[in-house]
Amino acid sequence: MALSGRPRLPSNLRYTPLLAYDPTIEDAYRKQTIVDGSVCHIEIVDTAGQEEYSTLRDQWVREGQGFILVYSITERRSFERMETFRQALLRAKSRQPPLFILVGNKCDQTYERQVLKQEGENLAQQWGCEFIETSARTGHNIEKLFVHLIRSLRMVRDGAELPPEGGAPRRPTGGSQKGSKKPTRSGKKGGCIIS
């Protein structure tokens, strides 16, 4: 998995509130969860997305299976950097299109909003990926985000195709319907990038 943007979403996989951001060179998070009746082992690596650690970040991107591009709705500059991160994903994953989700974080801070929800939705539509707003502080939509990513990874594993420019998986014709409870075993792991 990969993330890009300032907020530290992975810490909320443990469902603990995050009150301040502390940039890191690299943090790793592991969680076992159940999605649609199947056990999933998630490994997330937060490399903070800082430019001085781009070599380390590129390594995790090459190994990652799903990516979450995160920007802060309270910081327009982080939103404007999303295309840079997307292009880095496309370069690093040139042999295989990346699966990614665009996330606007800090949705609990609407009084400081600099990026409209519609702007995030429009960018995600342009990229052909999913979009969701979250709050790492309150946990709003955090679990939903990771469950959606796991389901998307399973779709790809089960034959769904990704567009050449990455984004959301496309169901194969004659494939299972959304929300299918077909039992699967998943041992998906990958890298996570947050900047």
From TrEMBL:
Residues 179-188 have a biased composition (Basic residues). Transmembrane segments: none annotated. InterPro entries: P-loop_NTPase, Small_GTP-bd, Small_GTPase, Small_GTPase_Ras-type. One of its GO terms (biological process) is signal transduction. The keyword Repeat does not apply. Keywords: GTP-binding, Nucleotide-binding. Its main location: membrane. This is Ras small GTPase family Ras protein. It is a lipid-anchor. GO terms for molecular function: GTP binding; GTPase activity. It is found in: Cell membrane. It comes from the Eukaryota. Pfam families: Ras. One of its GO terms (cellular component) is plasma membrane. Residues 160-195 are annotated as: Disordered.
